[in-house]
Design a protein that fits this description.
The complex is a heterotrimer of chains A (about 300), B (about 325) and C (about 325). Chain A is an all-alpha fold and about 300 residues long. Chain A is globular. By secondary structure, chain B is α/β, with parallel strands linked by helices. In chain B, about 35% of the residues lie in helices and about 25% in strands. In chain B, the strands form two sheets. An eight-stranded mixed beta sheet of chain B has the order 6-7-8-3-9-10-12-11, sandwiched between helices. Chain B has a four-stranded antiparallel beta sheet with strand order 2-1-4-5, covered by helices on one side. In chain B, strand 7, helix 7 and strand 8 form a beta-alpha-beta unit. Chain B has twelve helices and twelve strands. In chain C, strands 6-7-8-3-9-10-12 form a seven-stranded mixed beta sheet, with helices on both faces. In chain C, helix 4 packs across helix 5. Classes of the chains: A mainly alpha (about 300), B alpha/beta (about 325), C alpha/beta (about 325). Chains in contact: A-C, B-C.
């Protein structure tokens, strides 16, 4: 029998990762939570119609306590809080994920370039990062949203602009550590260009860190979305967890004792943030063997 | 006897498997005696060193007896072990850079065990530190330096000074000269030899370079797959290695001027056995160029093989010649 | 004598100092040539500039002066010339564990070079062939493994296979066996000899280990403080060293048969930011000390630089010493 030379399948690493992940109960719990929320968010249009959300078309009781028909009660215009929470997850998750992707792309690129080149480029980029870090986050986000106008897009951009600096610093530090290792020198001796070293040698070794930090950033972004929308920077017609809290506050749910209006979005935020955090920790434990050994 | 080890075994738990790193070894060292452990990585030589001071990770289990100055080390409480670690026996690790604390001066690091274990004042500890640095050939003025300000050889000297800080009876040197240049290596080896000769400290030295060990240690024990496979006086072992593995190790570093090794480096093909498995017969047989049928079936132990020498090879048995298969049968087998 | 495949002429590498520090003359006027199919060992202590020289040879460090000639043509430092050059001259590093990207399997590690150079057709055959040449057999059992699943010897073979995949004509190996087990050492050295025999590869092997030179090299060059102090055929230099530094290096090699203790070289390892006047070895030189006041030429040791050695090919030995023709006592009895 002759064996034809063949490259090994690329899925091997992924398969190992999945096997290791399935051995972690907290990771599975986090993932189940996320899948449940994402599933609900994606399938929401199937069971929630415009009639359930439009304040002019609903006909439920005002601020009714939870009942068999309205498991989580209703809000001022008479909409079901349960349906609002489910529908709100769409905006909150979308903003959280998109803002995180933006954060990661910008932060990782700047961090890696700064770490790889050093010198004038590296110092310049790090000064830029420091400058952004020195800017107060919330006022910057508020003024950005004011300039860009209310709405999900401006909130997403505002979150990304204020959070990429952390990723950039993290990735730069990791890039410096990776570049000091001999395999980078080996790649250079094999004839790799700068861009090839960054993409083929540094990025795969920085990726785990980016992944882990992105799960934690999503959690932060969802909280920021809530904060910014609560402060009134979102689109008032859009339903999101932040806007629900905002309206609950404005419509006197707190003083009126309508806890069912206030608590569900809050609990949803806590659970989703927890889900992302658990997933992130699990990924970190697998991808960072030194941590795995300690646990 | 300074140190008596009998039937020491160490295994590490890793997931479902258990790696049996050390598989029942016995040896002794008297005051001022020097013993070398040699072998490949994974042969268990470093595990032996760590187990003597109970420095093994929590996943390891030890059985057997280790007596240090008559006291069994495996039964005593941790306080006792801790006292033994500094005052009785101490260890010099390889890679002095990572074993030293980068943010404390070397003076502080040498003083620390003295203050802790000898119950002396700061002044006395400083004087002792200066003496120690002088003894290892580092100028006293260096006490205020940080590890990164020293050269590799000086750092290794500082490590030795730290090991000597509490006047131990036994020093364990784990690859003390690996990664050092030849000249610095010779300086460190001379230093250790002089210390042993002048202070009657017992020493265990671990390395994979037999020529280094033969220069510094009286006796030598070669380890393979967790067992001692040959032991005896160092120079005699290098001159007349009996076990094929000892021979391979002895030839690994050539003697300059030896025509046999010119443009002909001697290596040893193959890998050491999987230590999760039980091993029947001789563990080295699969890599041995002179093994035969009996090697994988006959129980192997250390047999006397010469003056003060023992060897775990069937070749050491008096009736060895009768055991060899008939050359004609071998030829038939091969065809 | 045929033209050398690699020739170093008057090479200098000076590291730019940080503020208020002296410049480090890591490589300070080195001439060296490597013939086709020749194995040259470059021997010296850490800090002597041997690793810098190796990196300059593969174009990782740009020289401050002098030139490197490959196949008679000087090496240019613009990107495309360097890339072409790197297909021919490959580097093997000391620590094989670190030289392999932990997130690349064996196949990708070996395929890295061909992919970087756009040699994608027949990639599989190239990778398998290189692995087989480097002694990873059978390759199909190893291609999917990751570096941490290999032994030290196997890792070094994969690194060598990665270099071979580009079909180079010269390999520059920086301490290729110093981090490996004694049993593996000989195997890797034999591999280098086999590659020379089968492929006609030339090699420059950088090491602090004179035994390695004895094991595999045709010619040896001994480097001290950025300059070559003695060079010539291995048999001549190692058996009859004439430079006091080479003598000191050989004298300290561990030897179980020895009954006298070698006289150790005194002083600190050399510092390339402070190169002494005159002969750069004179502060540590036992020969100068022995003849001080007895031979008028010892004056030269402290005042006059020793002429730089030329890059003679396979020809005879050369030594950079003012007192090359007198001998030094290098040994003292063990029980002094």
């Amino acid at each position: 029998m002759t064996i034809r030379p063949a490259a090994p399948p690329r899925t091997e690493g992924l398969r190992r990762f999945v096997r290791a992940y399935l051995r972690m109960p907290t990771g599975i719990a986090g993932l189940v939570v996320l899948i449940a929320f994402v599933g609900l968010a994606l399938s929401a249009p199937l069971f929630i119609g415009a009639n359930d959300l439009d304040v002019t078309k609903v006909n439920g009781p005002t601020l009714a306590a939870p009942s068999a028909h309205y498991p989580l009660g209703t809000d001022q215009p008479g909409r079901s809080v349960l349906l609002l929470v489910i529908w709100g997850s769409r905006t909150s998750l979308a903003i959280g994920v998109v803002a995180t992707v933006l954060t990661m792309v910008v932060g990782a690129t700047i961090g890696m370039v700064a770490g790889h080149y050093g010198g004038l480029i590296g110092r310049g980029l790090m000064h830029l990062t420091d400058w952004f870090i020195a800017l107060p986050g919330l006022p910057l986000a508020i003024s950005l949203a004011a300039v860009l106008g209310q709405g999900a897009t401006s909130i997403t951009i505002a979150i990304a602009v204020t959070s990429w600096t952390g990723t950039a610093r993290l990735v730069r530090a990791q890039t410096l550590a990776v570049e000091a290792r001999p395999f980078v020198e080996r790649a250079r001796a094999l004839g790799a260009r700068n861009i090839q070293i960054m993409l083929r040698q540094v990025l795969p070794n920085v990726m785990p860190l980016i992944l882990v930090s992105s799960t934690l950033t999503v959690a932060g972004a969802i909280l920021s979305e809530t904060t910014l929308t609560f402060l009134g920077l979102g689109d008032p017609t859009d339903v999101s967890w932040g806007s629900m809290l905002n309206q609950a506050f404005n419509q006197g749910a707190v003083t009126g004792g309508a806890w069912w209006y206030l608590i569900p979005p809050g609990v949803a935020i806590v659970i989703v943030v927890l889900g992302f955090t658990l997933t992130g920790r699990a990924v970190e434990t697998i991808l960072n063997p030194r941590m795995a050994r300690k646990s | 006897m300074l140190l008596e080890v009998e039937d020491l075994s160490v295994s590490y738990r890793t997931g479902r498997d258990s790696v049996r790193a050390v598989r029942g070894i016995s040896f002794q060292i008297g005051a001022g005696g020097t013993l070398a452990f040699a072998g490949e990585s994974g042969s268990g030589k470093s595990t032996v060193a760590l187990s003597l001071l109970r420095l093994l990770p929590a996943s390891a289990t030890m059985t057997g007896t280790v007596r240090f100055r008559g006291e069994s080390l495996l039964d005593v409480n941790w306080e006792m072990v801790r006292a033994v670690r500094w005052a009785g026996a101490s260890i010099v690790f390889q890679g002095a850079m990572s074993a030293l604390n980068p943010v404390r001066t070397i003076g502080q690091q040498i003083r620390e065990p003295i203050l802790l274990h000898e119950r002396v004042g700061e002044r006395a500890a400083r004087i002792r530190t200066a003496e120690l640095l002088d003894a290892v050939g580092v100028s006293e003025g260096r006490a205020g330096s940080y590890p990164h300000e020293l050269s590799g050889g000086q750092r290794q000297r500082v490590m030795i000074a730290m090991a000597l800080a509490c006047r131990p009876n036994l020093v364990i040197a784990d690859e003390p000269t690996t990664a050092l240049d030849v000249i610095v290596q010779a300086q460190i080896l001379n230093l250790l030899t002089d210390l042993v000769r002048d202070t009657q400290i017992g020493m265990i030295m671990i390395s994979h370079d037999l020529s280094v060990l033969a220069e510094t240690c009286d006796r030598m024990a070669i380890m393979y797959a967790g067992r001692i496979i040959e032991t005896g006086p160092s120079r005699d072992m290098i001159r007349r290695p009996l076990h094929p593995y000892t021979r391979a190790l002895a030839q690994a570093f050539p003697r300059i001027g030896d025509p046999g090794s010119r443009l002909a480096p001697a290596g040893l093909a193959g890998d050491p056995p999987d230590l999760r498995q039980d091993i029947d017969g001789c563990a080295f047989a699969p890599r041995c160029d002179v093994s035969f049928g009996d090697c994988t079936t006959h129980p192997i132990e250390l047999w006397p093989s010469g003056e003060r020498r023992e060897s775990a090879c069937l070749r050491a048995l008096p009736d060895f010649a009768n055991r060899l298969p008939d050359p004609a049968a071998v030829a038939e087998d091969a065809s | 004598m045929s033209t050398p495949i690699l020739e170093i002429r008057d090479l200098r590498v000076t590291y730019r100092p940080q503020r208020r520090r002296r410049a480090a003359r890591a490589v300070d006027q080195v001439n060296l040539s490597i013939g086709s199919g020749e194995i040259v060992a470059l021997i010296g202590e850490s800090g002597c500039g041997k690793s810098t020289l190796a990196r300059a040879l593969v174009g990782l460090v740009k020289p401050t002066g002098g030139e490197i000639r490959y196949d008679g043509k000087p090496l240019g430092y613009h990107t495309s010339a360097l890339r072409r050059y790197r297909r021919n001259v490959q580097l093997v590093l000391q620590d094989p564990g670190g030289a392999l990207n932990p997130r690349q399997n064996v196949f990708d590690a070996v395929a890295e070079g061909p992919r970087l150079h756009g040699l994608r057709s027949d990639l599989n055959r190239r990778v398998y062939g290189a692995l087989e040449r480097a002694g990873i057999r059978p390759p199909e059992n190893f291609v999917a493994r990751y570096p941490h699943e290999l032994s030290g010897g196997q890792q070094q073979r994969v690194v060598i296979a990665g270099a071979l995949a580009l079909e180079p004509s010269v390999i520059v190996a920086d301490e290729p066996v110093s981090s490996l087990d004694a049993s593996v050492r000989g195997e890797i050295l034999r591999l280098i000899l086999d590659l020379r025999r089968d492929l006609g590869l030339s090699a420059l092997v950088v090491s602090h280990d004179l035994g390695l030179a004895w094991n595999i090299a045709d010619r040896v060059a001994v480097m001290y403080l950025g300059r070559i102090v003695e060079s010539g055929p291995v048999g001549d230099i190692l058996l009859h060293p004439r430079h006091p530094y080479t003598q000191a290096l050989i004298a300290v090699l561990p030897d179980a048969e020895r009954t006298v203790r070698p006289k150790l070289l005194g002083g600190e390892p050399p510092d390339p930011t402070m190169i002494p006047r005159g002969c750069r070895f004179h502060p540590r030189c036992a020969r100068r000390a022995a003849y001080d006041g007895k031979d008028p030429r010892t004056e030269l040791c402290t005042s006059t630089e020793v002429p730089v050695l030329a890059a003679q090919g396979l020809a005879g030995e050369m030594v950079a010493c003012h007192l090359a023709d007198v001998d030094t006592p290098v040994e003292v009895p063990v029980d002094e």
